[in-house]
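My convention is simple: the sequence line spells out the residues, with the fold written below as integer tokens. I include a record here:
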Amino acid sequence: MNGLLRVALAQINTTVGDIDGNAAKIRESIARARDGGAMLVLFPELTLTGYPPEDLLLKTHFLDAAGEALDELASEVEGIVAIVGFPERANDVYNAAAVLADGKVAAVYRKVFLPNYSVFDEQRYFQSGPGGALVELNGVPLGITICEDIWEPGPPATDEALAGAQVIVNLSASPYHAGKGLEREAMLVQRARDNNAAILFCNSVGGQDELVFDGHSVAIDQDGDIVARAPQFEEALVVCSIDPGAIFAKRLQDARQRAAVRRAGPAEVPTLARVEVPPTEGEVGGEVTPVLGADEELYKALVTGVRDYVDKNGFERVVVALSGGIDSALVALVAVDALGPDRVTFVSMPSPYSSEGTRADARAIAENLGARFLELPIDPSMQAFDEILSGTFNGAEPDITEENLQARIRGNIVMALSNKFGWLVLTTGNKSEMSVGYATLYGDMAGGFAVLKDVFKGSVYRLVRWRNEREGRELVPASVLDRPPSAELRHEQRDEDSLPAYELLDAILAGYVEQDLDTDELVRQGLPREDVQRVIRLVDLAEYKRRQAPPGVRVSTKAFGRDRRLPITNRFRER
């Protein structure tokens, strides 16, 4: 049998539309992989254009630019095989993988299964490919798949394995949600065992608008053992070796595939190319990076989303309204960890209702993080608005209108700082508040990127505690964690005056927003019917607000924006 197959997983952070910049990263990774003795280097899905390109795929000049860049890359590839994701313009448009070898595009595989659920809408842009395909590398048959192709438990991967593929490669752009990495890895382990084949999975990494890609690329042997794993939320080039001889030996001992071939006949899977490259020596396996704990994983997803949204959109600095409360404290931590203290400005905007405790905590957080701090009291602006509206409001009792004015004054101030200095405003509202509309349009919702848009209140507390523990000191004072949450828009105000306790609220929202459960289903989980009905009503009424919110990092299975899509004008209510 053949010797070892030395492969590289090029987990790179691309930018949608930056074809030249992405091509430069691909070129650099190919060179590094070749220098590391790799015979094959695998890249993520649609690497050349970044994922997802969305309606850029409707522009013929965009597709042509990608094709030209691919041909240029191919002309430089010698002594190694590179499999690169790109959009292929042919009789239609395909989500494709190009096999680059010997200075040319040796073969092209077209993705079969086009996801059209959750954040995906690939059927809007692509035609499906005909089925599985093989490429032989030094006599070793490789089956090619792209992302969703391997999530399907049958073809094309099973067809490729029955046709002789000893290794199945998968180019992927698999977006993150909490726990996704281990879920995905478990699925890939099962595919390896079912097909008696090694699996090489290369995922995208980095942020793209609301999506975050976690990396976590892996190489898995025919027994389902992890032989190499790339880090999460970091670029990496992971080089490892697999043994085709061991795969062949395993198949001799396992007769399941023989029976399948006899029943169905040999799968109609074409071999698109046969390539030879210089063999390399080494030992089976590679570096296996440990998986992050749940809190660190979620925190790093937020940091990655903020960093890449800021950097890829050309912002030099961000501004955060720092109230001394728990939500703005977490946004402050994430912003500084993502960008460094020199690129973050905190602004406190106290009112007569702001306590000395929250004002002191805001100053302490800024000092602990080493970022610039501004304090701009809003008392004069509140008085000016009272005077302007006094005649019109004469005889009307003060209510939420005056409270919202305070939030909108603050929104105007942070947007003025943004306009004057070009800073991106990071908003601080969490998913619990956004769900029930406990936020002010053009006030605390005003900004460019919503860091906690998909993070429930309970998780906010948990992440702040984790970050303090990791630092070994109180970056965020204990008083922020211990103080009952309050918007401080009136005297002695507490969030729980207007909402159920957050522990209960989050449980209801997780069921209604993320799982689409109805009232009876939630009540059967032990949740109080009256609270469930009230929360559902608030969620439904707040759709118009959420539609006007800035984009934010997606970290759950169903986020507002790309995931959960409901009409604003909607009279459906449960009976």
